[in-house]
Amino acid sequence: MYQKIGADVWGHSVSILLANLPDELRPDEEIVDLAKELDKHYISPRYPNFHPEGAPFEHYTKKEAERATDYAAKIISFCEDKLL
């Protein structure tokens, strides 16, 4: 979306990237809240020693994974709608 407006942007926080879009592209609070949930999954799955014990995959449930993929799909759909 930032490329659409010719802007350079850096960062990994999906919620901040969405919240900082110009008014005409910015999502409502519900989409930003979904992104905040995804932001919480940025570091822990990548680092084997993030949790005191066990591998990262051992700290996720199927329900959490399904919720995260559902949220990601909603965010992608929002972006696609704005880009078309």
Describe the model.
The protein has 84 residues and is mostly helical. The chain has a single domain, classed as Four Helix Bundle (Hemerythrin (Met), subunit A). It contains three helices and no strands. Helix 2 (29-39) packs across helix 3. The longest helix has 22 residues, at 62-83.
In short:
Helices cover 46% and strands 0% of the residues. With 84 residues, it is an all-alpha fold.
Helix and strand string, N-terminal first? HHH
Strand content: under 5%
Distance between the termini: 11 Å
Helical coverage, percent range? 40-55%
Rough outline? elongated
Give me the count of strands: 0
Radius of gyration: 15 Å
Oligomerization category of the chains in this entry: single chain
CATH class identity:
Mainly Alpha
- pLDDT averaged over residues: 94
CATH architecture: Up-down Bundle
- Structural category: mainly alpha
CATH superfamily: Nucleotidyltransferases  domain 2
How many individual helices?
3
